[in-house]
User: Which sequence fits this backbone?
């Protein structure tokens, strides 16, 4: 009885893993953790570390566990028997440090909604470098619960510079860059392992699939092609305030494996992000001596909307596709409007350049 109360009182961040045929299981907090050499996911009870993939566990949870009732004596005995045979070891600092010889680096700002899922996936890596630019949520506390994480604070200096600093802190020969809202897939992990065992390639270029609220788009748009896994001494960042890319010397392996990008943003959050990114992109264009003709401002919004909604097929996503297309048009219009404004107003330009590196977008 006391044991059951302690379990229910534990304050943990967990997902709900529901089985339609066994409604009581939806009351029990579990966590999707990565196990096995290829990162295959299994639902595991977060408090007890018991895999729920065994029939005996199904019977136990169905017959004895409910969020509103006590655990029966028979349930306790059955649990003891299950634990003796199927217990998955809890996080072991020594085991973590002997994991995959790869440094993962991540830049963060207020990522408490995403960071736990990502760090669970990365618990088998040698080290995870997090460079945070001043989170005011629980990001730092969550990161501190993982023994292979090294957490650093650094004031925001821009995307490429912030990532270059995080890269410099990595100690392993091979490095992996991820965003807090991204996820590795088993094929991607397998591809990484194969590259660790060879000397021909210096980097991996692969796909990144965008999921909005867990759903892929029905549009014609192809996945992004990105280099995220590479030999540390072969990679460097060119200066860019936004949409930074790694430049790699050496051979790059082309692969169709995927990373997943979870964009769970409200429409207001997307508009705010586009407004901030458009300023940074306008400054980048100004650095390259690009000019904005006023005629562009007349047609850029309409052209960008039609290009996205019809040309890229976002009409296939219904209202969601309409909102994506409008946001894309807004971003392009604001980018050129700010570029034109900076060309006309040197005082505004000086102020914007000073704050571009000091405020995280």
Assistant:
């Amino acid at each position: 009885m006391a044991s059951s109360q302690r379990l229910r009182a534990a304050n943990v961040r967990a997902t709900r893993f529901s089985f339609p045929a066994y409604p009581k299981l939806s009351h029990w907090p579990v966590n999707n953790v990565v196990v096995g050499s290829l990162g295959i996911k299994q639902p595991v009870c977060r408090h007890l570390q018991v895999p729920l993939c065994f029939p005996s566990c199904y019977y136990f949870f169905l017959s004895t566990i409910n969020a509103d009732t006590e655990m029966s004596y028979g349930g306790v005995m059955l649990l003891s028997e299950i634990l003796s045979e199927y217990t998955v070891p809890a996080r072991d600092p020594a085991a973590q440090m002997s994991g995959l010889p790869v440094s993962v680096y991540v830049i963060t700002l207020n990522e408490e909604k995403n960071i736990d899922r990502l760090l669970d996936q990365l618990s088998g890596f040698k080290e995870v470098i997090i460079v945070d630019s001043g989170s005011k949520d629980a990001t730092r506390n969550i990161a501190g619960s993982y023994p292979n994480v090294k957490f650093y604070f650094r004031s925001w200096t821009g995307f490429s510079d912030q990532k270059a600093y995080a890269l410099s802190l990595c100690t392993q020969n091979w490095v992996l860059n991820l965003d807090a809202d991204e996820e590795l897939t088993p094929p991607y992990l397998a591809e990484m392992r194969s590259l660790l065992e060879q000397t021909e390639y210096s980097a991996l270029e692969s796909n990144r699939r965008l999921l909005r609220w867990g759903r892929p788009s029905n549009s014609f748009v192809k996945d992004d092609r990105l280099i995220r896994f590479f030999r540390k001494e072969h990679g460097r960042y060119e200066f860019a305030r936004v949409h930074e890319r790694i430049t790699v010397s050496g051979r790059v392996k082309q692969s169709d494996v995927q990373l997943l990008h979870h964009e769970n943003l409200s429409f207001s959050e997307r508009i705010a992000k586009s407004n901030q990114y458009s300023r940074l992109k306008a400054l980048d264009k100004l650095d390259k001596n690009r000019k904005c003709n006023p005629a562009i401002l007349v047609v850029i919004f309409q052209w960008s909307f039609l290009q996205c909604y019809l040309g890229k097929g976002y009409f296939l996503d219904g209202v969601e596709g309409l909102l994506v297309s409008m946001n894309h048009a807004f971003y392009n219009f604001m980018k050129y409007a700010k570029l034109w404004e900076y060309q006309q107003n040197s005082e505004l330009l000086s102020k914007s350049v000073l704050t571009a590196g000091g405020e995280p977008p």
